[in-house]
C-alpha cells in the first residue's frame, strides 16, 4: 500500500540512520514496496532540516544515532513544529530509552535486523493510522466551524466520569469559557425542555447500562 491517501501518490519517507549500509538497505526495501525515499540522513541536524525542507509522510528514526542527540530528542524537535509520524528503529534499547520513546507517541518500532515483511506491515499500519487520525482532526475542525457559523452547540458526555465536555459555541451560549469542564448534569438538564426531561433521563440511564435504543 504505497499510495498515501486518494490520488496523492506514493508516501514519502525520511530515513534517519547512522549505519550507512543498513540505511541503504531499508531504503531499497521501501522502494521495492513502492514508496518514495525523501532522503537518507545520519545526523540529527540533517534530519531536522530534511523534515522541514521535504515534509515527508513518515520518518524511520534510529533511536541510537551515536551522537550528542539520540533519535528521540531529534524527533521531539521535529514533532514540536511538524505533524509527521515516526517509527523507531532499534538494535538494542534499554527500558529507560523505550519509556522515553513512548512519550513521543511513535506509530511503531522495528527491531534490527528488519525483515521485509515486518517493514511492510509496520509502515503500512503507521501510514493508515496517521491518515485516519488526520481525517478525524479535519472532521472535528469542520464541525467546529459549522457550529460557529450556525451558532450551534454540541457536547460529549463521559459516562465513566459523568463529566460533560461542551463545544466552544455551546460554552459561549451558556456564558462559560471554552474547554471548561461542567462538573454535573444540572446545566445540561437546564437546557432540556421540561417535557423531555423524563425521556432524556431514561436515555442516559440506558446508556450507562449499555443498552441500545
What is the general shape? elongated
Biggest pleated sheet? 5 strands, parallel
The whole-number mean of residue pLDDT values reads 80
Specify the helix fraction band: 40-55%
**Tally of contiguous helical segments:** 8
User: Regions with pLDDT < 50 over 5+ consecutive residues?
Assistant: none
**Span from first to last CA?**
39 Å
Strand content: 15-25%
Structural class: alpha/beta
What is the alpha-carbon Rg in Å? 23 Å
Order of helices and strands: EHEHEHEHEHEEHEHH
Question: In order across it, which strands form the biggest sheet?
Answer: 2-1-3-4-5
Number of strands: 8
Give a quick precis of the structure.
The chain has 213 residues and is an alpha/beta fold. The chain has helices at 20-32, 44-54, 71-79, 95-102, 116-150, 168-174, 186-190, 197-208; strands spanning 12-16, 36-41, 58-62, 86-90, 109-111, 155-158, 163-166, 181-182. It is built from 8 helices and 8 strands, in the order βαβαβαβαβαββαβαα.
Amino acid at each position: 500500500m504505497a499510495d498515501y491517501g486518494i490520488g496523492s501518490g506514493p508516501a514519502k519517507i525520511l530515513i534517519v540512520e547512522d549505519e550507512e549500509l543498513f540505511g541503504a538497505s531499508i531504503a531499497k526495501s521501501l522502494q521495492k514496496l513502492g514508496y518514495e525515499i525523501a532522503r537518507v540522513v545520519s545526523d540529527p541536524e540533517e534530519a531536522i532540516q530534511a523534515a522541514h525542507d521535504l515534509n515527508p509522510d513518515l520518518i524511520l528514526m534510529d533511536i541510537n544515532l551515536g551522537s550528542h542527540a539520540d533519535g528521540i530528542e531529534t524527533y521531539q524537535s521535529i514533532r514540536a513544529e511538524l505533524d509527521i509520524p515516526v517509527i523507531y528503529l532499534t538494535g538494542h534499547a534499554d527500558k529507560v530509552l523505550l519509556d522515553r520513546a513512548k512519550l513521543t507517541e511513535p506509530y511503531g518500532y522495528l527491531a534490527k535486523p528488519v525483515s521485509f515483511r515486518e517493514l511492510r506491515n509496520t509502515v503500512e499500519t503507521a501510514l493508515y493510522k496517521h491518515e485516519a487520525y488526520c481525517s478525524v482532526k479535519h472532521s472535528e475542525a469542520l464541525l467546529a466551524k459549522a457550529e460557529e457559523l450556525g451558532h450551534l452547540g454540541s457536547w460529549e458526555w463521559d459516562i465513566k466520569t459523568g463529566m460533560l465536555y461542551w463545544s466552544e459555541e455551546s460554552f459561549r451560549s451558556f456564558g462559560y469559557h471554552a474547554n471548561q469542564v461542567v462538573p454535573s448534569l444540572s446545566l445540561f438538564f437546564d437546557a432540556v425542555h421540561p417535557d423531555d426531561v423524563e425521556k432524556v433521563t431514561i436515555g442516559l440511564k440506558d446508556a450507562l447500562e449499555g443498552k441500545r435504543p
